[in-house]
Amino acid sequence: MAGAPAALEAALAGRPVERPLLAPLLAAVAAEVEELDVRAFLADAGRRSRLLADLVRAMPVDVLVVDSGSGWDAEAMGLVLDWGDGTYPPRPRGGPGVALSFDPARGGGAVVLDLLGRLRAVVPEHVALAVTLTGPATLAAACGPGVAPGDAVAAVLVAARTAAERGAGVVVVREDGAIAVDPAAYGRACGPLWGSLRFFRAAGVLQVSGSGDGWPAVLSAPGPFLPVFESGTASAAATAMGSGTRAFGLALEPGAGAGDAAPARGGHCALLTHTRDLLGAVPVRDVRAAVAALGGA
Fold first, then answer.
1. What residues does each domain of the chain span?
2. pLDDT of residue 245
């Protein structure tokens, strides 16, 4: 192993971090490069692979996040994607009778898994490929009271394992920080998920959005995953992680730089990403500058 995969493996093992890896969220903003409708773009694995590969060659990217939260996994589990006013990302919606059974051929599943194979063939090996999955707590909340948390974890595990088998070296499990969880119960439930990813030599990342006031105990708990929280927003998480020696990642607002984030200077920050895709947040002409800023350039 070399490059980003090896660096993340070292961080998870507790070894020193040379520098934060850069994982900008470009998966949807790439549609604007050729002025394409984002929904049509997300359905076209061939076009997505070509544009994302071009962006990797033109920018300092260590981890290529091939899908930044389109809900492809939730759709493959039987949920419906609500596009609302048409803006990205859509919101997964459950309903009565949702069984949460991951079918890789359903919805956006086939497209993303095809995309992973295409990109692995053309992207340099030192660049890790990543996908974003809906976290089990967020998934259960979207489905309603009829879905048990354990069923949500089981569905996410199958999606994560399938993505890792298809070439994802990093799996980002994204949770809504506004959702209340029992830290101990969540940690126990997700243990098999992180263990499965380690078995497939993929790095598990737990990214919590917003202030995540109820999540510091989850993020700082021991486990083979990299916790990621929002710089400048998740003050409780920053305090919890800043006082320890565990590696973590930071999610910055589009256009913000690593120099603006105090935790990034502590020596334990292993990953820098964005809070959301650059689509709608940064004009396409400024994408290169936004990626450079992420790395402090």
1. 4-294
2. 78
Task: Classify residue 137 as exposed, middle or buried by CB count within 10 Å of its CB (0-12, 13-18, 19+).
Answer: buried
Q: Please, what's the b/e burial string for 113-135 (b: 16 or more CB within 10 A of its CB; e: otherwise)?
A: bbbbebbbeebeeebbbbbbbbb
**What pLDDT score was predicted for residue 149?**
81
Topology annotation, domain 4-294: TIM Barrel (3.20.20)
223: left (phi over 0), alpha (psi -120 to 50) or beta: left
Inform me whether the pLDDT recorded for 70 exceeds 70: yes
What residues contact residue 16 under an 8 Å CB cut-off, 6+ apart?
10, 267
- Examine the pLDDT at 94 and tell me if it is beyond 90: no
The Cα–Cα gap between 15 and 17 comes to 7
Cis peptide bond N-terminal to 192, omega within 30: no
Q: Which residues face 229 on adjacent strands?
A: 250
The helix/strand/coil state of 28 is coil
Which of helix, strand or coil describes residue 288? helix
Concatenated DSSP letters of 223-281 = SSEEEEEETTT-HHHHHHHHTS---EEEEE-TT--GGG-GGGGSS-EEEEEESS-STTT
Kindly tell me if the per-residue pLDDT of 140 is higher than 70. Answer: yes
Residues 6+ apart with CB under 8 A from 157: 192, 193, 196
Instruction: Tell me what pLDDT residue 263 has.
Output: 61
- At 165, is the secondary structure helix, strand, or coil? helix
% of the chain at pLDDT higher than 90: 73
Residue 1: the pLDDT is: 40
